[in-house]
Automatic annotation (TrEMBL):
Localization annotation: Cytoplasm
MF terms (GO), sorted A to Z: N-acetyl-gamma-glutamyl-phosphate reductase activity; NAD binding; NADP+ binding
Species, as recorded: Dokdonia donghaensis DSW-1
Domain Semialdehyde dehydrogenase NAD-binding, residue spans: 3-126
UniProt cross-references to Gene3D superfamilies, sorted A to Z: Dihydrodipicolinate Reductase, domain 2, NAD(P)-binding Rossmann-like Domain
InterPro entries: AGPR, AGPR_AS, AGPR_dimerisation_dom, AGPR_type-1, NAD(P)-bd_dom_sf, Semialdehyde_DH_NAD-bd
Enzyme class label: oxidoreductase
Summary of the function given for this chain in its UniProt record: Catalyzes the NADPH-dependent reduction of N-acetyl-5-glutamyl phosphate to yield N-acetyl-L-glutamate 5-semialdehyde.
Similarity comment: Belongs to the NAGSA dehydrogenase family. Type 1 subfamily.
Keywords: Amino-acid biosynthesis, Arginine biosynthesis, Cytoplasm, NADP, Oxidoreductase
Name of the protein in question: N-acetyl-gamma-glutamyl-phosphate reductase
Annotated gene: argC
NCBIfam families the record matches: argC
């Protein structure tokens, strides 16, 4: 059994990690760190986990086998500097701090970008993982099969709607119920922070890509999930497009091209990404749906841990959607 620690244990992503890891056959939760909740039972904060005999702590065991950093953006590096984890401790960071190529090396640690669909072999040999962003995951999985065939020859237009949990557990003006309910808005148009990692992954598969990714992120009045649509020029047939996507994802544990139009309930509470294609004139419309807290965060983090230890990629992730 491998011992793991969770840093920032009171947030949404940490809550999802706990739910996954208490049922994982290969690990034992050693500690869940939260200074504001130290001494409290985990079930006091994550109330659906009232049956779990775990408590938050302000102590850190720097010799665990894996530590998951579920801290706010910009705080992971500070934490690593404060606590000298063993050289054998694997770090999986869920913030955006180490995702870009310019930021992958921090102190004596080098981070691998943890998108299994393109970096599986690197992840297997990695000591440290930069877990991808939620929007980035949905959008990359929509576009990378085209990039792999050097078919992104024109600008790509992207709209993606996320649920309220995408903004984190700390309330803000645009996440409380009175504002979010029966409402809809966009934010960070054309300059969302996930564009950098999306662009780097596209170039990884299609060297020389120099077109624009026009991304409009949007807030939806639901709790969890991301519904992303993207369109760009594509001269082939819809059959050729599906053949490309099915070939690209034939060995993927969780990314699947499907023929029927998509909706969020197909993937919420699962680690799947479903992708649907439509041809409209010379445009290919790609729809991609994920659960932002699972495939977009904690589920993908567990995927990465499984790969790092040589376990089956879906260990502890056999989750099923619920329509009702």
């Amino acid at each position: 059994m491998k011992k793991i620690g969770i840093i920032g244990g009171a947030g949404y992503t940490a809550g999802e990690l706990i739910r996954l890891l208490i049922h994982h056959p290969q690990i034992e939760i050693d500690f869940i760190y939260s200074t504001t909740n130290a001494g409290n039972a985990v079930g006091v904060v994550h109330q659906d986990l009232a049956y779990v005999d775990l408590a938050f702590t302000s102590d850190v065991n720097t010799k665990v086998d894996v530590v998951f950093l579920c801290l706010g953006h910009g705080n992971s590096g500070k934490f690593i500097e404060q606590y000298s984890f063993s050289s054998s401790t694997k770090i999986i960071d869920l913030s955006n701090e180490f995702r870009l190529k310019s930021d992958v090396t921090f102190k004596d640690r080098t981070f691998v970008y943890g998108l299994p669909e393109i970096n599986k072999e690197e992840i297997k040999n990695a000591q440290n993982i930069a877990n991808p962003g939620c929007f980035a995951t949905a959008i990359q999985l929509a576009l990378l099969p085209l990039a792999s065939a050097s078919l992104l020859s024109q600008d790509v237009h992207i709209n993606a709607v996320t649920g309220a949990t995408g903004a984190g557990v700390k309330p803000s003006a645009t996440t409380h119920f009175g504002w979010r309910d029966n409402n809809f808005s966009h934010y960070k148009a054309f300059n969302h922070q996930h564009l950098g990692e999306i662009g780097e992954s596209v170039v990884q598969l299609q060297e020389g890509f120099d077109s624009e990714l026009h991304f409009i992120p949007q807030r939806g009045n639901f709790s969890r999930g991301i519904f992303a649509t993207a369109y760009t020029n594509f001269e082939g047939t819809i059959e050729e497009a599906y053949a490309l996507y099915e070939e690209f994802y034939k060995d993927s544990a969780f990314a699947k091209a499907v023929k029927a139009p998509l909706h969020l309930k197909q993937v919420v509470n699962t680690n799947y990404c479903f992708i649907h294609l439509e041809k409209h004139g010379n445009k290919l419309l790609i729809t991609s749906v994920i659960d932002n807290l699972l495939k977009g965060a904690s589920g993908q983090a567990v995927e990465n841990m499984n790969l790092m230890f040589g376990w089956a990629q879906d260990t502890g992730l056999q989750l099923k959607a619920s329509y009702f």
